[in-house]
Every structure is written in C-alpha cells, then in structure tokens.
Amino acid sequence: MTDEIDRVALAERAATAGSEVAAEGFRQGLAVETKDGKTDVVTEADRNAQRRVIEEIREEAIEDAIVGEEEDELKEVPDSGDSWVIDPIDGTNNYVRDLPLWTTSVAAVRDGEPVAAANISPALDEAFVAGPEGTTLNGNSVSVSEKTDPETFAVAPTIWWDFDHRDEYADACEAIVERFGDMRRLGCAQLTLGMVAAGMLEGTLTNVDPNPWDTVAGVYMVRQAGGTVTDLEGNRWRHDSTGLVASNGGAHEELLAAARSIE
What we know:
33% of the residues lie in helices and 24% in strands. With 263 residues, the chain is α+β, with helices and mostly antiparallel strands.
C-alpha cells in the first residue's frame, strides 16, 4: 500500500472491526486480569480485539510492522518503513467498570510519522478519523477550539501516574486548576486527544513517557484538526518524546508552563 487515502480507509476498517469485537464483551462480566500493577488491567476482549485488527490490516498490508499493546507485537515505532500502531481497547479501566469512555485505536505510520488514524468508540457511537484532508467525527469535519483565553479552557491531565508518582498527579491537577477554567480526566488518552481535535477540550498534558498506542493516533488527529502537539521542551512531539502537551494552539505556552511545573 502506498496511497495515504487507502491507509485512512484501512485504519478505519481495522479499528471498526476491532471495536466490534470489544463491544461484544462490554458490560458482559468478563474476567479481569492484571499485568504490571493493580490498575494495569487486561481482558480477553483486549487480546481478541487486537487479533481482529491485525487480521484486517494483514489483508492489505502484509509486510508492514505491527506495534501493539497486547501480546508479542512490537512495543516501539520503527523510524523507517511502514507500520501500524494499535490499541485494541484504550481505556480498559473504564471498559471493565462499564464506563463507555474507551476506544479502539489504529494509526498508520510511515518513517516514524503518522499518516492516517482512526479511533472508534462504539459505546459512544463516535468515530474519529484523520488523514491528509483533516479530521472527522462521524464523517463530519472537525477542528480545534478557537478559544484563546486560558480562563475559558477545559484541560485534561492524561496518562496514568503510578502510585509512587502521585505527587506528580497532584501537581498536574493543581497546575491545571490554577491556570485554566476547568479540568476533565477521562481515563482514555486517545479519546481525550480526539476531543481536543474536535474542540470539546482546549488541551491535555502529561509529563510521563507515553506509550505509542496511547498517543500516536490522537496526536495526528489534533494536528490535522489545526492543533499543536509538543514535548515538554516545546519541540514537535514524536512517538519517543518525553511528556505530551496538546492544545488548540490558542495558549500553548500556558499549557507548557503547566506541564513543566509538574515535579
């Protein structure tokens, strides 16, 4: 596959197929397992949804690398060649609590840069898709918020702070409520980034090193919707960056200041 439009279509098909598998298990009392900690949870639906996404991708992109959260797929994005970044259920903690704030995420990447993305949230009946022509929500073009006054902003801390970093979590919340109009925390990084892209939130931030499956698709959506995404230094965000600051661009320096104040 060489055409980016084709990759947009495949990303959407694959994410939709995986989300359908995940939706079958939602609110069905699935057994919950833990991986690296008490809140790092996984279900059989995560694994089955990822397998389904990969099946769909492999029908057209046989040789491309696969980066996926579950099982033995790659855990880092290659800096050269074509790859796909998958999160079968971003927001698994919401999923197992019967909260509808979760999404199946697929991003197509070329030489380390995303070129297509889809985040499908069946429990919300929402489909965020991004490609060279912009970002859409349920087929309608969207763009970032036009607000420029930080006191009118809704900003979300994102990515999870482990128990030995709860002081940083507290710092992040304090930094947001001191600088902006209000705070949200959704427990689903990809959905949060999609909401920044669609103008529902003005920004999101973290100081941790985020995983590519939690971020790459949503970052591309924000950029294609006219937003700004950087690392903590204000440099253009990459899949291997430290921290993540995404905004509508209206007061990005204020978002950066908040993220940098986390210690």
